[in-house]
Amino acid sequence: MTNEGKEKPRFYTCDCFTTDNIFLEEYKLHVRFVSEQQFRLDYHALLKKLGCVTDEQFEGVLNKISQEVDRRKHLGVTSAQRAAAIKDIYRPLHPHVYHLQESYLTSEFKQIVEYCQSDSATEEGLLGLLEEQVAPRVYRFPLFDKSFCEDLMEELKHFEQSAAPKGRPNTMNQYGILLNELSFDEHFITPLREQYLLPLTSLLYPDCGGCCLDSHKAFVVKYDMNEDLDLSYHYDNAEVTLNVSLGKEFTEGNLYFGDMRQVPVSETECSEVEHRVTEGLLHRGQHMHGALPISSGQRWNLIIWMRASQERNKQCPMCNRTPTLVEAEGFADGFTKHSDPPQNISCALT
Asked: Full-prediction pTM beyond 0.70?
């Protein structure tokens, strides 16, 4: 349900964004950096065990962290500058892919959404329409028409080869595209979240904000034999995540899911999940997961981190503390200054 005419909430980030969950690719380690003294005390011994033995190697780590902290501090400004430059100089190859149309969606997915919107919808009934769970509370369904995926891939490739500036999706993915900077948010990602995904998540994940998703971060990640091959074990800055395989031709590179992030790795068994082109996977953001290496070809995935301010306003999922809010642009990290129901979403769906 939408409430047109009401003022939209302002979204914020948590101050931990510049200090927490900094990923060191070489050592497959997420770290927190407040000061060099704190970092040496917390991580020097661990990094030595992982192969960071010499003073030169440790200084290299500190330099990488310094660059990442600086990138995060200026992210809002640099992202807005990139978006403005893209709007000014980039000419889309397929303008139609920027506006969501029902014809892009599979008939199976539309039937699932229609059921979820009915008065008689239940979680049990929905599960009967979805494929068997591929891991605990991980659900797969055919989402996009193949021809749309092909057009979208051509558009993304066209943008990648253009002179327009590009930003990296996050600390862990070096190659990909931030879709808000390319103007996909307003007419594609937001209506997809509000009109089509919310009815599903309301039934599947009511315990973690699935009925009140009011913001998102959307991006495309790219895996290539000469670039990123895989994705290390991690959890998302989201209440619910949608992961869609767009293409192209590739072999291997399956996803794998462990347990929720609170469960020690030593007590976790992972389930491998095949990710098929045009299909979407829904899972809880705090569900630990990763991507195995591709062995040939190239793979592009659409990722939507969907957020519920009512949940994250209580506790930041990235630092486990009450969030200290910092002003930011757009949807930021999905925090708001109040815990009232989101103004454009009804949480009556259960």
From this structure: yes
